Amino acid sequence: LKILDKGYVKLIDSLGDDKRIAEVARICYGHEGEPTDASVTRLLTTLINNQHTSPLEQVVFTFKVKAPIFVARQWMRHRTGSYLEQSRRYTKTKWEYYIPELDILPNDKINSKHIQKSMEGMFLFQIREYERLISFGVKPEIARGIMGTSFYTTFFFTMDLKNLLHFIEVRKDSHAQSEMQEYAIAIELLIEEVIPQTIKIWRKKDEKK
Length: 209
Ligand SMILES: Cc1cc2nc3c(=O)[nH]c(=O)nc-3n(C[C@H](O)[C@H](O)[C@H](O)COP(=O)(O)OP(=O)(O)OC[C@H]3O[C@@H](n4cnc5c(N)ncnc54)[C@H](O)[C@@H]3O)c2cc1C
Known about the structure:
five-stranded antiparallel sheet; 8 helices; elongated; binds flavin-adenine dinucleotide
């Protein structure tokens, strides 16, 4: 899913689904084997409504994310995730920067366009100066220090479902930064394809709050 002007979230892999959650939860009640469709719905509802969340930890997702550095910094505060990020010491990939859409900048369109141009000018200046430092022989890990947090980074992100639902809840909330909200909403849409019933029940509980 494309996010912002140049970002994305891609679901790379997943372990488990709605049925897996019910299957592992059944051990608590001494039941073994495959649950029926009806018992999957019943169990998922019970687990989610009673905060019996350990079975959700048996489902895991891996994503590839491209996001501005300031989004990545907020993202990685979620310590229960595993991360692997592109290194700026070892790579020479080109710098890409995030320019906010006009509608999230101040209302006056002319003023907004001016702000976009001004931001872009600053980003281009940083890229030029970075390249100049590199041409002087400055190491990339030192030269990158002059770059701002609106430049894009890419990382892999793996998290179990319990913590991922928490991530989505707090990051799609209106208190979170709008850019971060877009990524959280995208994650929710992607995992819904793998665990539709769980997401449906979880949303219902969320609506009741
Ligand atoms: C709107 C918003 C604004 C924020 N502003 C700031 C800010 O200004 N500055 C800032 O530094 N952070 C800020 N944060 C980050 C926030 O404080 C959390 O660090 C972040 O949301 C991760 O939440 P978490 O710890 O619940 O998630 P995770 O780190 O994924 O942890 C998941 C759960 O595991 C448990 N857990 C994890 N680590 C521990 C631990 N060490 N001890 C006990 N239990 C643990 C907790 O139950 C936790 O809820 C902000 C977050 C939001 C959503």
